[in-house]
Structure formats: C-alpha cells, structure tokens
Amino acid sequence: MLQTKDLTIRFGGHVAVNAVSCSFAPGTLTAIVGPNGAGKTTYFNLISGQLKASGGSVLLGGRDISSLGVSARTRAGLGRAFQLTNLFPNLTVLENIRLAVQATRSGRHRRGLNLWSIWSDYKALLRRAEEILNTVAMQDRADAIVASLPHGDQRKLEVALLIALEPQVFMFDEPTAGMSVDEAPVILNLIRDLKNDKRKTILLVEHKMDVVRELADRIIVLHNGELVADGDPAEVIASRVVQEAYLGASAQDASEPSDGPAAGGPAAAQQGSTA
Questions:
Q1: Are 201 and 2 in contact (CB under 8 A)?
Q2: How many domains are there within the chain?
Q3: pLDDT tens-digit readout, 237-265
Q4: Same domain, 64 and 187
Q5: pTM metric for this prediction
C-alpha cells in the first residue's frame, strides 16, 4: 500500500500542498483531479521524489521512503511514466524496452562482458521486450530511433518502459495529453489491462472527466493544495465542493434546477478542464 501522511511543501510563503494524508490500496485506480494550480502534479512530484517535502512522509508497503531519491523510489516500486521519456533517444524503440527489462532482471548480463555467457539471458530479455512492444501496439516501430518518434508514439513508449520496470505503483500524469483521437484509446486500453492486476496500485491525474468516470474506482480532489473530497466517483463528482472548486459552479447554481445542463454539471464535466 502507498500512503502519504501530512505531506506538505512550501515555496517561500506559499503552501502548494498542505498536509495531505491519503492511502492507495492495491487493486484500485485512484483519479486525482482539481482545477489549475490545485497541487495535483506537485503532489505527484512529492510522491515520486522529484520534489523534497517540507513536511510529512511517503510510505510504500509500510516502509518510509521519504528520504529516497527518484531512482531509489523507482527501484522500491514506484513507477511514473514521464520519468522514463527518451531514456536513450539515440537507440531504437526495441533497444529502449530491452534495457528497461534488463534493469529489473538478474542473470549473466549483470556479470561481466563475455558475450557467450550472456547470450541466453539476452534472448530472454529480447523476447520480453518484444512482448511489451506488442502490448503497446508498436511492433512496426521496433527499429525506429526514439528521437524520431512523433508525440503519440513517445507516450506509448513511456507506458511500455513503465510496464517493463514492473512497479508496484503506476503513476500516470495526463497519459493521453497531446495524443490524437486514434492514438488515445491504445493508452486507455493499456491502463484498463493494468487494472486487472489486483496486485498493482494505479494513480491517475486526468482532466478528461469522461475518462475519469470510466476508469476510476475512486476520486480524490485537491484544491488550493488541500484534500477536499475523497470517495466514489459518482458521489465525488456530484458533491457541492467539487461543483464549486473543480467544475466552476457556485453553490447556488449547483443546487438550482435549470432547463438545460447546469454550468459545471455532467455535460461540462465530460468536456474536462483545460487545466
């Protein structure tokens, strides 16, 4: 289980994340939503180690990992897609995935440079890399140089590398951002498949509320750096605090009937925030 306890960060006099305590259980996809400047990405950065907290702690499997850097947290089981973008931009897509697989495996490839002794390990690593390549529907780009990939394929490669590292916790920060209508379903289907593994924990920052409704088992809402709502997606989205803080409706507007969809109601929610 992943936990944050009173997690806080200050930038001068500004408190960007304020004493956020939350637990994320295996087998659950939690969507983290909120308006611009709510602290969503900052909270992600505190969990993954990109930012050092001013106070509070991060625990994984009961172990306090607050003092660990990004790489050590990744080895401990935290996986965040964007950390891996263009790991080796001058190598091919397949070589990038193979190296990510190799980083998680023991074997002769870790002991010396004797090519004969590591050949069997290399073939096993390559087979696993090809499996992952097929999973993300990038077989036709196996020999492409990563630096030459369009944005959508780079996002798919991020997910492939994350899968290769086999983390306990998958962290996705707007995984379909910048992707075309044709490309986005590939990423969303991958996340759906990951949800089927009940040993894994998934955190998702996403502004597209139709995606959140479909994928999330739970929603937490951050506003002004504080946790203001937490629970079942339908209940959280319908709550007054979310209507006010995230969807932009006033408390009066949210409670008054109208001839059409309320401002910030389901129709607006499906459009998502531009944050």
A1: yes
A2: 2
A3: 888 877 776 555 544 443 444 343 333 33
A4: yes
A5: 0.80
